[in-house]
Design a protein that fits this description.
The protein has one domain (about 5-90): Beta-grasp domain (Ubiquitin-like (UB roll)). The protein has two helices and five strands; from the N terminus they run ββαβαββ. The chain has helices at about 20-25, 60-70, and strands at about 5, 10-15, 45-50, 75, 85-90. A five-stranded mixed β-sheet has the order 2-1-5-3-4, covered by helices on one side. The longest helix is centred in the middle third of the chain and has 10 residues, at about 60-70.
């Protein structure tokens, strides 16, 4: 069972294969944003990896980060928890002015992943 550490919130065990965005919100109890519902469209679920960054990416994640000119961050909706990792949750509901974090992302990565 992978361990997820969210900077400032502690460490939790997460189910292998669980989407990182859901693990951050549901297991670590961090109010991470996911305005598009975890579909790699909005980039509000951005995280910065401190340790354990996965080497592979989805095509959707790469396209969105490139479009927005974002570097040094990853989209937590496009990552499955398969090993221990430590992240910093960048976009949180607290202080965002949004009424809610967005629709709860599906359990499976969406859109269906094309790994690059």
């Amino acid at each position: 069972m992978p361990k997820l550490t969210v900077e400032g919130f502690g460490t939790v065990d997460v189910e292998t294969g669980k989407r990182l965005v859901n693990a951050i919100e549901q297991d670590a109890s961090v109010d991470i944003l996911h305005a598009c519902g975890g579909n790699a469209r909005c980039t509000t679920c951005r995280v910065e990896f401190i340790a354990g960054e996965p080497s592979r990416r989805t095509k959707a994640e790469q396209e969105r980060l490139t479009e927005r000119g974002l570097t040094g961050v990853r989209l937590s909706c496009q990552i499955a928890c398969e090993a221990d990792m430590t992240v910093r949750a960048i976009s949180r509901l607290e202080g965002s002015g949004r009424p809610d974090p967005g629709r709860t992302p599906d359990p499976a990565i969406q859109p269906p992943p094309e790994w690059i």
